[in-house]
Design goal:
With 430 residues, the chain is α+β, with helices and mostly antiparallel strands. 47% of the residues lie in helices and 20% in strands. Strand 7 and strand 8 form a beta hairpin. Strands 6, 7, 8, 9, 10 and 11 form a six-stranded antiparallel β-sheet that branches. It has a four-stranded antiparallel β-sheet with strand order 1-2-4-3. The chain is extended, with a radius of gyration of 31 Å. It folds into three domains: 109 residues, Alpha-Beta Plaits (2-Layer Sandwich), CATH 3.30.70.1050; 186 residues, Trigger factor, domain 2 (Orthogonal Bundle); 95 residues, Chitinase A, domain 3. Helix 7 packs across helix 8, helix 8 packs across helix 11 and helix 10 crosses helix 11. The chain contains twelve helices and twelve strands. The longest helix has 36 residues.
Length: 430
């Protein structure tokens, strides 16, 4: 195999790999002969399957595997001999202009930039701290009661907190929607699920009462042809139901898996769950803080253009999917995500470089602790742990996450940092 490397930019390289066809054929033939000795194919005795039959059935797959292995060897050789530090996955294409008797492939690589001095002591980090209070536990207990609430119909005017069951018909640009009959819907007044002017109009209405109001649709309405226009809607309040909260008794507590039904034990488990949530939220805040400081300190560094482009496309795809779920459209192209993509790539490369230069290694204890914390949120934790241990892809994702958190902590500890106490609700973003 012949391997050569060409520079196509400051952070870009072109690797040319030439594979002699004869070498590939020899390896393919050897692999097929090995398979013929053990292959079990209907109509043939074990070990007596003709090589032609093996080739017809497995030849394409075997050839692809052989070529893939040789290309990996060639890429490893190019990286090792030229001391290349590759950023992202290479793009490998077959060259149609290969010489006689050879297969030729071209790999496009991007390299990790030279960050120069990495002095984390220059960074100024604000590290948030928080703790779970008794008030936070009581608030969560109330939320759980809300989740298990029931509704009872009442014969009175609707007010905030009530469930209002409605029949609605609207007119927009002279068109009635729906064309016939009414749309049935329900809303909890005060929840913000409907426009404020609608909720204001419904509050105080009696069951059976109708009211007509005008509502101006927002400029980013999911149907662009109607954005910013005024719709005239008629609401009929079919009935009203008020919320009935369950008592926090033994039966209620057992419904959440606390077999004893004991309130203090229930509160202890709530505290544990909130502390786990808080730990994750504080790490996310620290990750953002460290990321912002790294970007500010190393924004001048040139980055691999294709890697930035790829990250911007991921961000665009995520935004598009989120907008679709909300019945909206993104209304922006990939250019709008270039800067965010650049920042993400910069932070990811810097975190990797800090780990490499300081020989940081994944801490197995931290990995196991994180895995146990994740598993504890499920009814059968041991099965979740087994799932991670038996799924290499899932485990690799977890290892990457834990390693990133290790490096973030390492950076924060060595930076100039101050601690700032915040409340639980602020910490988790509520």
């Amino acid at each position: 195999m012949q391997v050569s490397v060409e520079s196509t930019g400051n952070l870009e390289r072109r690797v040319i790999l030439s594979l002699p066809m004869g070498d590939v054929d020899d390896q393919v033939g050897g692999r097929l002969r090995e398979m013929a000795r053990t292959a079990r194919i209907k109509g043939f005795r074990p070990g007596k399957v003709p090589t032609k039959v093996i080739e017809q059935r497995y030849g394409g797959q075997v050839r692809a595997e052989i070529v893939d292995g040789l290309l990996r060897q060639g890429m490893d050789q190019a990286v090792r001999e030229n001391e290349l530090r590759v950023a992202g996955a290479p793009q490998i294409t077959q060259d149609a202009e290969a010489g006689e008797g050879e297969l030729k492939y071209v790999a496009s690589l991007e390299l990790v930039p030279d960050f120069g001095d990495l002095d984390m002591a220059k960074l100024e980090i604000v590290r948030n701290t928080s703790e779970v209070s008794d008030a936070d536990i009581e608030r969560m207990l109330e939320n759980l009661r809300q989740q298990r609430a029931s509704w009872t119909k009442v014969e009175r005017a609707a007010k905030t907190g009530d469930m209002a069951n409605l029949e609605t018909a609207s007119i927009l640009d002279g068109t009635r929607m729906p064309a016939e009959g009414f749309e049935k819907s329900s809303t909890v007044l005060g929840s913000g699920s409907m426009y404020p002017e609608v909720e204001t109009a419904i509050a105080g209405m009696q069951p059976g009462e109708e009211k007509t109001i005008d509502v101006t649709l927002p400029a980013d309405w999911h149907m662009p042809q109607f954005a910013g226009k005024t719709v005239t809607s008629t609401f009929k309040l079919v009935d009203v139901a008020e919320q009935v909260l369950p008592e926090v008794d033994a039966a209620f507590i057992r419904s959440f898996g606390v077999k004893s039904g004991d309130l203090e034990q229930f509160k202890t488990e709530i505290r544990s769950n909130l502390e786990r949530e808080l730990k994750g939220a504080l790490m996310n805040r620290l990750r953002r803080e460290v990321g912002e400081q790294l970007v500010a300190a190393y924004q001048h560094v040139e980055l691999p253009p294709r890697l930035v482009e790829s990250e911007a496309r991921v961000l665009l795809a995520n935004a598009t999917e989120q907008a679709r779920r909300q019945g909206q459209q993104v209304g922006a192209g990939i250019e709008a995500f270039q800067e965010a993509g650049r920042k993400r790539v910069l932070v990811a490369l810097l975190v990797g470089e800090v780990a490499r230069r300081n020989a940081l290694r994944l801490e197995q204890n931290r990995l196991n602790e994180t895995m146990r914390l994740i598993a504890s949120t499920y009814e059968q934790p041991e099965q979740v742990i087994a799932l991670y241990r038996n799924d290499p892809q899932l485990m690799q994702g977890l290892q990457n996450r834990v390693m990133e958190e290790q490096v973030i902590d390492w950076i924060a500890e060595r930076a100039q940092h101050t601690e700032q106490a915040i409340g639980f609700q602020e910490a988790i973003g509520q």
